[in-house]
Amino acid sequence: MPLAITGGTGFVGQAVLDEAARQGIGVRTLARRVPEDRPQVEWVRGDLADHAALSQLTEGSRALVHIAGLTNAPDPAEFHTANVEGTANVIEAAKRAEVRRLIFVSSLSAREPHLSRYGASKAEAEELVKASGLDWTIVRPPAVYGPRDVDMFDLFRFAKWGLVPLPPVGATSIIHAEDLSRLLLALTPSVPGVNKHVFEPDDGREGGWSHKELGAAIGSAMGRRVLAQNLSPAVLNAAARIDRLLRGTKAKLTPDRVGYMCHPNWVVRSSAQVPAEIWQPRISGEAGLKSTAEWYRNQRWL
Which of 103, 178, 184, 255 is least enclosed, having the fewest CB within 10 Å? Predict the structure, then answer.
């Protein structure tokens, strides 16, 4: 019985497919555009609004890992369509196919839904999962980084020139995509201690990383001493307007993102740790950031 996955062509989804291949796990994956470089994956063409595709995805599956979702959008209203309505469609398909186990990839931003439309959409989707009647587990990753990541990549690119722009003073947790992938796969069996739990995984660094520490660590990964500069909300909002002018609908820095970036505490809670017998992180922040920088260089992104 294959494992069903949504979002298999995204950053985290591709890391999950890599890990599933290493573990010899058969997967069936939903995608708008089917890639040609993963012949071992059973692909289902479609999206979260395609009920027929979702039925095909879930039919005969042993569990469903719901990764797909919108993390950035020029129009914040799009978050509800993708993250809330899309999750409702996934739950409906799982119930029709009698797939009992659901692992939902949410976000730490769901802890503070008033800060952003993105966080609010993830919080609303979590409530749908909790009310689904399925054997669910919710995973709220902090900042995810690693090969193929395009969001934190800009910080590495800035570090190349000796500067890392940062949000206002605060702290955050991080997790390497490979560690997150191992966790998602480890949660697919329905075992004691995981059902109906909300987990907040990280790299194991107690207290997380202050923004300054993270900026310096990215500089070190790039072999540079950098100026890690905290920026005010006003400066970040101005930068978001400039990014919109330069990149249009493809802008990475949006006012919605500024809303949650300026929150001072995105550190995972010890009360939401994954039981150690289920999963533990293997990749420290220092090692992961260094290997990620090497991947960017090898792929000539830098």
Answer: 255
